[in-house]
Amino acid sequence: MKRQISFGQALATVVGSVIGAGVFFKIGTITAQTGSTSMTLFVWILAGIISIASGLTISEIAASLKINGAIKYLDYTYGRVWGFLFGWAQMIVYFPAQIGALSSIFGVQFVSLFGIKARYSNLIAILLVLFLLGINLIGTKFSSKMQSVITILKIIPIALIIIWGLFNPAKIPAPIIPLTVGTGHSFPTAISQGLLSALFAFEGWIVVTNLANEVKNPEKDLSRAIILGLSAITLIYVLINYTFMTVLPIDQLTNNNNAAFQASIKLFGQFGGKLVTVGILISVYGAVNAFMLTGMRTPYILAQDNLLPFSNKIGKANIHTGVPVVGAFIVDAIAIVMILLGNFTVLTDMLVFVMWTFNTMLSVAVIILRKREPELKRPFKVPWYPIIPIISVIGGIFIVVSTIINQFVLSIIGIGLTLLGLPIYYYMQKKNN
């Protein structure tokens, strides 16, 4: 594959992958879990700190190892089976579920905006997947440039809401100190549940490591894109959620999936509601494209090591565009099936658990490699070592343990689906030998 992705395009992929529907829809869930404005903002900030710590930590591996993506980082540190399981989980559920869920949200918002009958929302979602598949098949360079444009466009409505909200003369008090929870809420439960919800909105940044072999200067640009992207996203999330809480009282925000729409009507009038809907469509469109751009490379990476059946077909990229065509068809075909099946909330929550399990392993890998290979050239070193990696590891363990305690069945299903890849792995190992 050609090194054709610039720092700006990699940064746009990070921001585009993460900022999707969560920035608009999570405020209702988190306020219900925390019961207060101060705790709501605190869990957003805490989620950002954990994500940035994880990004800083994993960036050291991304800059040091001249290999492609998180799958290979796990291979290198723990052994090939762990990299395969991570790639398997991404290929069969994570990327298809993200693409399918976000496309479904796009379909629902699209029919609402244009007054189309609700039964056509799935058709719109499938057409979006097929349209973006066609865009990505044109070539990596084209789709990456389009991602940069979409990322800028999706920031515009968010920026308008934040600016109008901050200078709104009729602000509702939204105290950020002292740190309290609402009546009937316990402090530990509010933090754990609120943090899990907020972290879902940060999901997706690690997928940019799949582009490591196509970034022009991966030793510097990959880590910079991850760190700057996550920092910007954290600031955006905190500001827009603070804006929502100064426009609508917390009892109107709680469990309200239309909070962004209603807040914008108060800020801009009826036009504001349509503006937010357009903003959601642009935001979700960009997120789907980002997940598609990076997701199609997961089966390609696995097939390059002959770890999948028909690897000789899956592990090839188009000689003119550099696009792994078969990988794109695999991921998008599963996504379309998921759109037709419906109900992605449980599936997506389950994969957040699975992905953070591997993210935690990647953070621990930095500590392992520091001990095992002290002479390894590290163009980027995580600052304040080992404090930042420890924050990342503790945060990851907290997420995994909290999910097991609060959603035990969900976590078992997630582990089970991941382990389904083991028979294929050992079959291919035997075949290769």
Your description of this structure?
- The protein is mainly alpha-helical.
- Helix content is 76%, strand content 0%.
- The chain is built from 19 helices and no strands.
- The protein has helices spanning 7-18, 22-34, 37-64, 69-78, 80-114, 121-138, 140-166, 187-201, 218-247, 250-253, 259-268, 270-295, 297-304, 311-314, 325-341, 345-372, 387-406, 408-419, 421-432.
- Helix 1 (7-18) runs parallel beside helix 9.
- The longest helix has 35 residues, at 80-114.
Unreliably modeled segments: none
Please compute the radius of gyration using only Cα atoms.
21 Å
The gross shape turns out to be globular
Topology as a string of helices (H) and strands (E): HHHHHHHHHHHHHHHHHHH
Summarize model confidence as the mean pLDDT.
83
- Describe the largest sheet: none
Name the assembly state: single chain
Q: Could you name the key traits of this structure?
A:
433 residues; mainly alpha
In a nutshell, what does this entry contain?
By secondary structure, the protein is an all-alpha fold.
